[in-house]
Design brief:
By secondary structure, the protein is an alpha/beta fold. Helices cover about 20% and strands about 25% of the residues. The two termini are about 15 Å apart. Keywords: Hydrolase.
């Protein structure tokens, strides 16, 4: 597929960590990567970060001091694989004036501050987040609320079926939309009607496909799903492309390439997310422009 230059008007996604539970390392994990969940989202020039797994350290090294003065990190929930990168986020170490804001929706309106303060303090960790140069602010909301930011950006949220709850996010920009549906266990009946409406007609859905069908039979109640259920949801909701995410750390490159080929027989626009892979969704043309000229989602290989 041809590359194209990313535009400031695009809705852009870049994967910095795609594994679930724990990191994966070794020569058999090169193509898909080994970091735990972290995704960079750009609504034009506006930066959001989803989850703060170990991939956040890689994103932070990439951003350096070019990160904005205020960085917004949207947490799906507070399990360790989604927050373990926070004290290693380089922009938090480079400026006393930078503000790092976390948003958490699975604590019935409470922020993540108390939980993060317990984790990032002795004896579990040598320092507290408040000892880093940047200033941390923690905001709570209830999954299902719509988040509104001072610049006019809004992000819809949805409560997901996961132990302790998890939050899904829907981003919209330039007529395009991306949904983040990780750390979810499919329910019966499936697809869930409310979730189907939440992801309806999205250009891209990022979905928790941690287990194979065979593995899931031994892991029910653990809060995760399969790529098969992701395809079912995507088709029911008219989702245009599907990225399988929160990859089981034991699934190596060979296993994942076989899985990807199988899912593409059912949904050709489905794929397994790869670390540092970028998806750029160009703005839809203004009314009156022929539909044939409307650009489709473009997968840009990582450099």
């Amino acid at each position: 597929m041809m590359r194209r230059v990313l535009s400031s008007g695009d809705l852009q996604i870049r994967f910095w960590g795609v594994r679930g539970s724990t990191c994966a390392s070794g020569p058999q994990f090169v193509e898909f990567g080994g970091h735990t969940p972290c995704i960079e989202v750009r609504c034009g020039e506006r930066l959001f970060i989803i989850d703060a797994g170990t991939g956040l350290a890689a994103l932070g090294s990439h951003l350096g001091n070019s990160a904005p003065d205020t960085v917004d990190i949207l947490l799906s929930h507070l399990h360790l694989d989604h927050i373990s990168g926070l004290p290693f986020f380089k922009p938090a170490l480079l400026s006393n004036d930078r503000v790092i804001r976390t948003f958490c929706g699975n604590l019935d309106g409470e922020s993540a501050q108390a939980s993060l303060d317990r984790l990032y303090s002795p004896p579990l960790f040598p320092i507290c987040l408040d000892q880093l140069p940047a200033h941390f602010e923690h905001h709570g909301f209830k999954a299902g609320d719509t988040l509104s930011f001072a610049d006019g950006t809004t992000i819809r949220t949805h409560l997901l079926n996961h132990p302790g709850g998890s939050t899904g996010y829907r981003f919209a920009h330039g007529g395009r939309s991306v949904c983040y549906i990780s750390d979810i266990e499919h329910a019966d009946p499936w697809p869930d009607p409310a979730l189907t409406e939440f992801v309806r007609d999205a250009d891209l859905m990022i979905y928790d496909g941690m287990f194979s069908d065979a593995e899931y039979t031994r892991c029910q109640g653990w809060g995760h799903s399969t790529w098969n259920k992701g395809v079912e949801l995507a088709k029911a909701a008219g989702v245009k492309a599907l990225a399988i995410f929160h990859i089981f750390p034991g699934h190596d490159d060979t296993f994942l390439k076989v899985s990807e080929a199988e899912m593409q027989k059912l949904m050709p626009t489905a794929f397994v997310a790869r670390e540092r892979q970028t998806i750029a969704l160009a703005p839809l043309p203004k009314a009156g422009k022929p539909v044939a000229d409307q650009p489709l989602p473009v997968k840009v290989p990582a450099h």
